[in-house]
DNA sequence: AGTACCCTTACGGCTTATCGTAAAGCAAAA
DNA sequence: TTTTGCTTTACGATAAGCCGTAAGGGTACT
């Protein structure tokens, strides 16, 4: 089993819960931080001291408070760590269950495990740790189909851009103007209407509000 | 200090974290449940056995799963317990920080403490327990102004309901119909328009799409 | 060139949303 | 009871969204 791990999780209660679970797994050195910057510094120092961490368990979202942070999210932390310490095992532990997000974490940063915070989250986390220790990637059942490219709708960058602008409160007219100014084609109101109509059909949405809400649920925007 | 307490919290990790904190407080009998119905049954049985719980620490929102539950939320649990066991101390521990909600929990059900799940949530929870043990009500700083009736610009359950229906793709007409069918007042199209207009202003949203997107970002829906 | 095809754009009708104003309903205070 | 103030409802005008049809503009192939 791992001997030295780091927990990065802003919420004290969850952090403590994870700690208790790791203890039961027989891990000896367990360190805890509530800020991403602290996580980075601890990992950096451990490396310099010649006693590096073997495993990082990190949340994705960290609430901001009065402490200024260079690294503001778990995703940034993962990217940074992956760059400088490619060998370290990383497990993300988050309430986030958006497939797109999970997929990008795996493909872009090569995390070793992803566990959803659910009722049985801790059980899964212990399973994930054992699995990752044996070099087998682990995904929670909720997101295990993230790597399965079958259910890919034909959503492209233009669609995402469109939905983003829509969710920011721009009218279709505004978006048309914005697109033509920024040389994004097609830019006409009619084309935008057409594309949105297609998206509504694809996502089985009744109207634009429903469409944007669905896109947010799916993690597209 | 209390000698017998119950923790009702669906998330395993948080439940475990609370448990560890209570242990450090020197509480001897700490029981844990992940479902509201279990909490009720345990409390009922303890009463019948003549060894009642002195303190209940409960979450407010419990995710539904395959297990059918009669009591579906922390609020319902609190109402039930208050009715049957008026002398039991109750502390709500939730991420919810809507003043209106906290206020109603205090005034309607007379809970003894309310602690927000934040970074330092556990520290506050231990403070709350000590305070409640000495019969002094406790409120997290985030909501300590809940009893101060100055703040009126609040989002209430009606607003949430409205935003939810909107995000599900119903038109304002549909919602009006739905509300009158389900006896939710006010239900007229005009009132719905007015309320949405107020919400748009409160959230600085350009239109309904923007409003729903913002509400989703804030986790209101 | 011609034509076949697809993507883009334009426009008109119809529906829904947004906004202002005003009337009706209701309850507490005078 | 009347007055007063607030909430809810009604309605009309303008704007935005939705939908079908058709015209314009490329590109590739014959």
Automatic annotation (TrEMBL), chains A, B:
Family matches, as Gene3D superfamilies: 3.40.50.2300
Claim: Phosphoprotein is one of the keywords in the record: yes
InterPro entries reported in the protein's UniProt record: CheY-like_superfamily, Sig_transdc_resp-reg_receiver
Pfam families the record matches: Response_reg
GO biological process: phosphorelay signal transduction system
Keywords, alphabetical: Phosphoprotein
Domain Response regulatory: from-to ranges: 4-132
Official protein name in the record: Response regulatory domain-containing protein
């Amino acid at each position: 089993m791992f001997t030295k791990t780091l927990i990065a999780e802003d919420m004290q209660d969850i952090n403590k819960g994870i700690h208790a679970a790791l203890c039961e797994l027989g891990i000896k050195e367990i360190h805890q931080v509530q800020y991403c910057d602290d996580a980075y510094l601890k990992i950096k120092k451990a490396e310099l001291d010649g006693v590096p961490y073997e495993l990082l368990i990190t949340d994705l979202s960290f609430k901001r408070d009065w402490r200024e942070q260079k690294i503001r999210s778990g995703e940034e932390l993962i990217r940074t760590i992956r760059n400088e310490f490619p060998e370290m095992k990383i497990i993300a532990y988050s309430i986030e269950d958006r497939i797109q997000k999970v997929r990008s974490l795996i493909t872009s940063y090569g995390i070793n495990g992803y566990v959803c915070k659910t009722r049985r989250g801790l059980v899964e986390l212990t399973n994930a740790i054992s699995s990752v220790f044996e070099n087998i990637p682990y995904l929670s059942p909720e997101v295990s189909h993230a790597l399965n490219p079958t259910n890919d709708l034909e959503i492209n960058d233009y669609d995402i851009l469109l939905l983003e602008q829509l969710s920011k409160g721009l009218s279709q007219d505004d978006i048309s103007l914005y697109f033509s100014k920024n040389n994004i084609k097609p830019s006409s109101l009619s084309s935008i209407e057409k594309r949105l109509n297609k998206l509504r059909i694809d996502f089985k949405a009744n109207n634009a509000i429903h469409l944007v809400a669905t896109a947010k649920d799916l993690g597209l925007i």
